[in-house]
Amino acid sequence: MVQVKEILTKALKKLVYDPLKIILKSRRGTFGLIIVLFFTLMATVGPLIVRYDPSTVNLSEALQPPSLKHPLGTDWFGRDILAMLIIGSQDVLFVSFVTALITTSVATFIGILSGYMGGKVDSALVAVTDIVLTIPGFPLLIVIASVLRTSNPILLAAILSITAWAPLSRAIRSQTLSLREREFVEMAKCLGMPSIHIIFSEILPNIMPYIIINGIFAFTGAIYAQVGLFMLGLAPYKSQNWGVMLNLAVNYAGAVFSIRQASLLAPAICIILLQVGLVFLSGSLEEVFNPRLRSG
Amino acid sequence: MWKDRVIGGEIISEYLMEARKLTKEFEVSVGMFKSRAKIRAVDEVSFGIKEGEQIALVGESGCGKSTLGRLLLGLIKPSSGQILYKGRNIWRLSRKEFEEFRRNAQIIPQNPYDALNPTKKLSAALIPQILRHKIAKGRSEARKMALDLLEMVGLSPPEDFIDRYPSRLSGGQMQRVVIARAISVKPQFIVADEAVSMLDASLRVEILDMMHKIGEELKTTFLLITHDLGVARYFAKNGKIAIMYLGDIVEIGETEEIIRNPLHPYTKALLAAIPVPDPKIARERKSIPLKSIDVPSLLKPISGCKFHTRCPYAIEDCEKIKPELRLVGNRWVACHLT
Amino acid sequence: MPGNPIDVMINQYMQQGMSMEQARIMVSSLYQIDFSKPVWEQYIEYLQLIIRGNLGVSYIYTGVPVARIISYALPWTVFLLSISITLSFVLGIILGMFAAYRRNTKADHTITLFSTITNAIPNYVLALIFLFFFACVWKIFPMRGTRDPRIPPGFTLEFISNVFHHATLPILSFLITTVGSWILQMRGATISVLGEDYIKVAEARGLKGKRIMFSYVGRNAIIPLFTRLAIAIGYMFSGSVLIENIFTYTGIGYYLTYSVTARDYPLMQGCFLITTLAIILSNFIADLLYGFLDPRVRIER
After folding, report:
1. What is the Cα Rg of chain C in Å?
2. Residue B117 and residue A186: Cβ atoms within 8 Å?
3. Which of A136, A147, A275 sits opposite C120 (nearest CB)?
4. Would A42 be classed as within a structural domain?
5. Is residue C57 helix, strand or coil?
6. In this structure, is residue B57 part of a structural domain?
7. How far does C220 lie from chain B, in Å, by closest CA?
8. For the stretch B274-295, what's the b/e string if a residue is b when 16 or more beta carbons lie within 10 angstroms of its beta carbon?
9. Exposed e or buried b for every residue in B102-141, given b needs 16+ CB within 10 A?
10. B259 in a domain, yes or no?
11. Which of A16, A267, B153, C121 could hold B176 in an S-S bridge, CB 3.0 to 4.6 Å?
12. Regarding predicted confidence, which is higher, A253 or A285?
């Protein structure tokens, strides 16, 4: 029993405490961490404490500037913006997260397989990857999303990943290729270790940092694609999704005339904050993984 | 060169590891239009290593010695020719037999900083293969064996080292762990590819001595690949040296004999090039007047003896006919002039 | 697919009194594809038409050839993207080299921070903010369109300034969100070139700082960036989809979105094709450039 507790505290120290120290040392890292935690909270806990039902339309209260009653004002249809923001965050974060997961997993799988096996398998996978790379991502996304109008978030995530995996897969493949030539891999092969062991024990741990950091970028890319898609009005209508809120902003921009209605852009600000926070956090994580980059 | 005896239907080779007309070609892209060219890194090499022998393979950079080493270990596939382990062609073995060969042929690579996985503890560098080949029956027994191995390579007390990460070791310590890794599966044959080249001079003797000790205790046959004749001489004191040039073995024989009386012109040149600290001896030494300092590129095939472009003693035949390794006394030399 | 415009059109013709067969023939000749054949055969006919330069006829803009729509829209997109990319790249390499030479000073830190932040901002979000403030609230720039249709096209100052007036916000959106990437890349490349031995040799030889900066450092640092530039051009086509939509800027991206929502398949395919071609072309140029520019690749071993 004591052993388990020991192992747990060691793991916690290595996975949480030490990285945290490094992240918190830099201003950017701290900022990024706070932002990410903030939005995670917003998406998970937020919807439980929201007072207004964002779907009720109340035209009498339309386009009100921020007030005590509506901290961020109301939109063109009288809906509370803050409430919509909080509920919408769930959609954005969840779908983007799943998308990033799918993108990263597929890219890792194909990249490592291709790089490690070489030969015909590699050639075939590289050809496929190259073809996917030349397909314009966002236009394809538009076409597919409009044809497959789905409100299933997982399916949406899958669609968003359709071309996103290709560039990452290429990068992982070249990492795998160079790792494959390292002497400790050569020794492992010589010692008779099976390919499965080499891939999981020797190669994977060495590209894990790369995968994690690119996973975060996959996340930012997913947010970009998802919100963009909703902003064009090409996905099923969930009115609180930030992208849909932006869609309304585009379509009804003509009705905006005063700076007091700036809160209509609240989702835009949130998106910017989230993206910047994620980028800062990934930069800080790079320092965690690569001791040489640390400045302190 | 090879004398196989057949006893009772089974081939008994007198060599543990043998190369027969072993050739390896690499394709290379050259220039902006990426035209392909072939480089023969190993050119129809034939030689054998007996069990228990300590052989040093010497040559300059790019002569193909590392490639030859890896061919012998089955890490690279030959373009043509055979590699025999105990008389059997390793590429014709069944899967189980090949696994057994695998276990018995190990490599000690050149760069200790690269030969250990930086993300894993030392225990992970030793235990997995012990378990895989069922040399021990459980994790605790395997761990005990790993501790013994660390002790054997001079990392004492082993308990201090086994849970460390490679970043906490010095270059010399890392190389010891690498050696421990190589012998963890109790191989019969080890190829040490420039195993001491990246170590400080003071450590080299220690490591070479350790390899000797291991050779004796575990009855392992060593092939040390090096570009340094001094290292080769020290390691293979009671063994043999093979000299390699541009993909060919030009001379093989007992170490002391070769040092005292080199027969092949290239061997003579190599020996003459070893810097000697005593200026008096250095002045007295005869230098070999090589025709050119440049080593010819392998991209253009050389006719006849590969050394003829630089050899000061070359005769007409040297340019036309390639000399084979012939027995001269108890030395094998590939030269028309012997 | 539901709401197939072909069927709708056939129905319309039938309502005008034609028989089913006649209606179908009318529609077929209009779009030059026989719709009664199985889909894959239709596709082959379509490919044949494309090779001959015929992209078909738009559904919604009934009767207008897709090629004409694209030839109208493409120049606008190219105009927008070329100005954006050029400005972004040039500004980026200047600031990048500037920051590299003043490494670890306050100027460098500011520039790097600015670049990282602006790079993270999605371009359409910035576009929206610009639209709101500069076009709707403060009315400095126009809200939509590529130009004022009342001004006749021509090389007049009035027309040209109007075009640029309309293009300013889209260009700014692109510029600000992409310049950061070039700054960071150029800065990184310059720093690594500055660390190379041949630079130290040049300094030791007594070459003037400026000469070193341009002939040696600049030239070597830019080489990897050129190929990425070519690739970036391809990706810009993807990105322009969103920005053109926000500003109702009638380029390829705008028509692509429009054709998707309106189910105008020929137009959609046409726009998609052009975008894909642009990306393939830019990748190809990037490959050529890389082989040509990097002298190390040229030298025979």
Report:
1. 25
2. no
3. A275
4. no
5. strand
6. yes
7. 19
8. eeeeeeeeeeeeeebebeeeee
9. bbbbbbbbbbbbbbbbebbbbbbbbbbbbebbeebeeeee
10. yes
11. B153
12. A285
Which range marks the domain in which residue A250 is found? 95-279
pTM: 0.81
Closest partner residue to A189 (CB to CB) among B75, B99, B181 is: B75
Any idea what DSSP says for residue C132?
I
CATH of the domain at A222: 1.10.3720.10
Contact C170, C127 (CB under 8 A): yes
For chain A, the domain total comes to: 1
Q: Which residues of A touch C143 (CB under 8 A)?
A: 253-254
| B159 assigned to some structural domain | no
Q: What is the pLDDT of residues C151-185, one digit of tens each?
A: 777 778 888 888 888 888 999 999 999 999 999 99
Query: What digits encode the pLDDT tens for the residues B267-314?
Result: 888 888 777 666 766 666 666 677 777 777 777 777 788 887 788 787
Residues 6+ away with beta carbon under 8 Å from A51 = A80, A83
Residue type, B186: K
Phi, psi of B332 (to 5 degrees): -105, 125
Task: Residue B197: name the closest of B68, B54, B55, B66 by CA.
Answer: B66
The number of distinct structural domains making up chain B is 1
- C13 — pLDDT class (breaks 50, 70, 90): low
| Alpha helix positions (H), A118-181 | 119-134, 137-147, 153-160, 165-180
DSSP percent split of chain A into helix, strand, coil, nearest 5: 75, 0, 20
Does C272 touch chain A if contact means CB atoms closer than 8 Å?
yes
Closest CA to C92 of C225, C231, C235, C199: C225
Instruction: Indicate yes or no: CB of B32 within 8 angstroms of CB of C291.
Output: yes
Chain B hits for A192, Cβ within 8 Å: 99, 102-103, 129, 132-133, 185
Give whichever of A233-247, B35-49, C150-164 has the largest mean pLDDT. Answer: B35-49
CA distance B263 to B254: 12
Which of B115, B119, B120 has its CB closest to that of A187?
A: B115
Radius of gyration (C-alpha) of chain B in whole angstroms: 21
Complex ipTM value: 0.85
- CATH number assigned to the domain comprising residue B251: 3.40.50.300
**Count of Cβ atoms closer than 10 Å to residue C1 Cβ:** 7
Domain assignment of residue B203, yes or no: yes
With contact defined as 3+ CB pairs under 8 Å, the chains touching B are A, C
